[in-house]
Amino acid sequence: QFLYAGFAGTQAIYGWTIGSNGSLTAVTGSPYAASFISTVGNGLVSSSMITNPSGTLLFFASSLGEVFVYQINSDGSLTAATGSPFSVGIAPLNMTTDGLGKYLYATDGNINHQGTEVVAFAIGSNGALTPVAGSPFVLPMWQVQGEPTGNFLIGTTGQSAGINGSDNDFLYVFSIQQSG
What we know:
The chain is mainly beta. It has 1 helix and 16 strands. The chain has one helix spanning 161-164, and strands spanning 2-7, 12-18, 24-26, 32-33, 49-51, 57-62, 66-72, 78-80, 86-87, 95-97, 103-107, 118-123, 129-131, 143-146, 152-156, 172-175. Strands 5, 6, 7, 8 and 9 form a 5-stranded antiparallel beta sheet that branches. Strands 1, 2, 3 and 4 form a 4-stranded antiparallel beta sheet that branches. The longest helix is centred in the last third of the chain and has 4 residues, at 161-164. It is globular and about 45 Å long.
């Protein structure tokens, strides 16, 4: 019911309510100042800003090694989660949640689509992020995606002939343990 977009040029996050006819109406307080949005780390990837499955939290990856978390209020307005931003130990590029919204996963990498690890966090009810034991995981994933049951994480390396000289056409499936 809401649409959010971050723009490096204005260093702001814009939010809209989506009407039944597809019309967009700015939510209260939009745009929101977001000086952490840069043209260096953000804008290169497809999942640097995501919501949890229930649409109550917005996550924004910063090239400064942080994830900014916002609570999405019932009117679509945004409130920074307590403790946000959260240091993630990498420059997060692509993010996803498991299908149940219990865990947040972020990949590191570079503009050559070569990731080296995935960090995992338990998501608290207020949006707080707590590192999962054993994280970061040494997985050369460029992009990961949760699936609806919350049991599996699906990833791709992002390796393509145009960027890396050869293709990797495989999907990688990882089991998600209930501990993250």
